[in-house]
Prior knowledge:
Blueprint: H1 9-21, H2 33-46, H3 67-72, H4 74-86, H5 99-122, E1 132-133, H6 136-147, H7 153-156, H8 179-197, H9 215-219, H10 230-246, H11 252-267, H12 272-284, H13 287-290, E2 291-292, E3 303-304, H14 307-318, H15 325-332, H16 339-351, H17 357-366, H18 387-406, E4 419-422, H19 424-430, E5 441-444, H20 457-462, H21 471-482, H22 509-516, H23 520-534, E6 555-557, E7 563-565, H24 566-575, H25 578-594, H26 602-615, H27 620-629, H28 631-634, E8 635-636
Antiparallel strand pairs: 1-2, 3-8, 4-5, 6-7
Helix pairs in contact: 1-2, 4-5, 5-26, 8-12, 10-11, 10-12, 11-12, 14-15, 14-16, 16-27, 17-18, 21-23, 25-26, 25-27, 26-27
Amino acid sequence: MPTRPPSLIAPLLTLFGWLAAAPMSAQPPATAGGFADVRTRVTELCGRCHGATAQKGGVNLAPFMDDASLVRERKLWRAVAEQLKSGEMPPEGAKQPTPEQRAGLVAWITARLDAADEQDRRRPDPGRTVVRRLNRYEYNRTVRDLLGVDLDAAGAVGIADEVVGEAFDNLSAALTVTDGLVEKHFAAADLILDALYATAPKKGVKAKAGAPPTPFERVVVATPTSEVQPRDAAKRVTEALARRAYRRPVEAREVERLLTVFDRATAAGATYEAALRPVLKALLVSPNFLLRVERDRPGDAAYRVGGHELAVRLSYFLWSTMPDAELFAAADRGELADTAGVEKQARRMLADPKAKALTESFAAQWLQLKKLPDARPSVEFFPTFTPQLRRAMHDEAALFFDGLRTENRGVLDLLDADYTFANGELAKHYGIAGVSGSEMRKVKHTDPARGGLLGMGAVLAVTSHTSRTSPTLRGKYVLDVILGTPPPPPPPNVSQIDDAKKGKDAKTFRELLAQHATQPACAGCHAKIDPLGFGLENFDAVGRFRKSSADVDATGKLPGGEAFNGPKELRQVLLKRKDRFAENLTEKLLAYALGRELQAPDAATVRAITAELAKDGYKFSTLVLGVTKGYPFQHRRNARSEE
Length: 643
C-alpha cells in the first residue's frame, strides 16, 4: 500500500503561486528559473503559516518542490490534477484561476506525469527487493499444506502480526524477526509436531483397508526395512519434505546438514520415528521455511525471477500458502518461464477454493472487516446489534467480495450492485422480505438506497460511534478505502465534539459538527470529508435505514460544487470517479502482491493494469491477472544493487 500522501495544500499553493507569477501556458516552464520565481511568490503568500517557523496543518513550504519532486510523487500530483479538474481546489474563498488557466494547468501536470510513466514503461524497474517472513495467516496455512496439521499454532504461542501504518500485514516492513519471535516459533514447532505425531499409527495396529493415510503417514514416506537402513529411509523423508518446506529444489549439503540431527538422535538411542522429530523441527524453524528468500544472481541488472521463485510469488499472492504439486511441477518443467505459462497457472489457482485467501487476507484488511468485532455501536443503544448480527454482516461483505472472484464479476459492483448476501437475521435488519434461516445466500436488493459496500452493515458499523453515526469517519472511509485519497491526520490538540453541548446554537449533531469544522485548523479537511459522510446519514450506526427528517439530513455538497442527496445519489457521484476507484484498488492489490509499498516506477504498471481493466469491463480476473503479468511481479534486482 502506498505511503500516505502529504497534504495537497503545498503543491496546490506552489502551482497557484506560479499562476500568479506568470501567464498560464499548457507547457511546463522551460528552465528551473521559473520555479525559483514561484518559490519567492509562494513564500510571500504562504510563508507566514506554512514556512520554517510555522506549519499549520503540518504543511511546510520552506523545502520548495521542483520538477523532479513532481515525478517522484506521481500519485499525489495526479490527485492534484483531479482536484483541479473537479474544482475542489483551490478552496472556496481563495483566489480562483480562470477556466483556461485551470484547464492548462491540468494538461501540464497530466502531460508531465504521462511522459514519466512512458519512460518507466520503456526502462522498467522492478522496485526494491524484499525478504519476507511468513505472517501468522500464511504460516498456519503453510503448515497445514506441508504437514496436514490444521491448527493455529502461531496464535497459540502468541505470534502476532504487526501492521505499519494502515498497510497490509504481509508487507516486509512489518515482518521483522526478533529473538523473542524465534523462541515462539520453536514453541509453535513443538505444538505442530505433537499434533502430527498424534496421528502416527499405533504399533501392532493395522490400518483398515482403503483408509486414507494419516498426516504422519503422508510425511514419513519411508521406514526402515530389512533392505532399507534407517538413515537411508530418513534421507528419503528429509529430501521430500525439505523440497516442499523450502519451496524449491534442495541441495545435497542441505539434506546432509539436517541428517546430522537424525544421526545424533539415533546415537543417543532414539527410535526411528523419535529421531525424525528433531529433523522435522529443524525444518520448521529454518530460515528457509520461515522466510521467503530469493537468491541474487551474478550482475546487478534487473532480471526475471526463476520458475520456483515465481511459483512461490503466485501461491502466496493468491493462496497465502505454499505451491501445490501442480504448480511445483510446472516450475520444474520450465512452464513459468513466460507470461503465458504464468497466466495459465494463475487462472487455475484463481478458480481454486484456496483463492478465498484473497478475501480472508487482502479484502478483510483493505475493507477494514477485521475491525468489525470491535466496532463501537453498543447494544445499549442498538439492542439488535448482537454478535450473531455482526457475524452475518462480516459474512455478507466477505461473500460479496469472494463472489467477484468465483463469478468473475466487475469490481464496480463494490460501488453499486442490485444484490448482496444475507441470512434471515440480516435480511430482517435490512428490511428484505422472504429470507429466513441462518444460512447466508445471495439476495436481490429492493431498496434503491442499498447497493455495494456503502450499504453494508459491516462498513456502516465500523465507521460509527457508540450511540450515533459519524459522518467524519464515514467520509474518511470513502476517501481512504474507496478512492485512495486519505485526508491528513487531524492536527494535534484539536478539540473533540461533545454531543452534550448541543443547545440553542446547535440543535442537531450536524449543526454541532458544522461549528467544529469552522475552526481554522479543521475547516479544509472537514469540507472534503463530511459531505461524503452526510450522504450516508439515511443509515443509522448499525446500518438500518431511516427516512430523512429534521434530524436526518443526508444532503451533501463537495468543494467542487457537486451536490447529492442520500446514498443512491452518493453512489452515482462515486461511479463518476470509477477510474480513481479502479486505480486505487489496483494499487492496493499490487502492493499486497509485492509485499512492499509502491514506488514511483510502479505507476506505469498500475496505469497499464487499470487501462486493461476498463477495456475488459472491470472484471475481477483481469485485475488479478494484470498484477501477475506485471513487470514488478515477474522481475527482481539484486539486493546489493540497492546499497
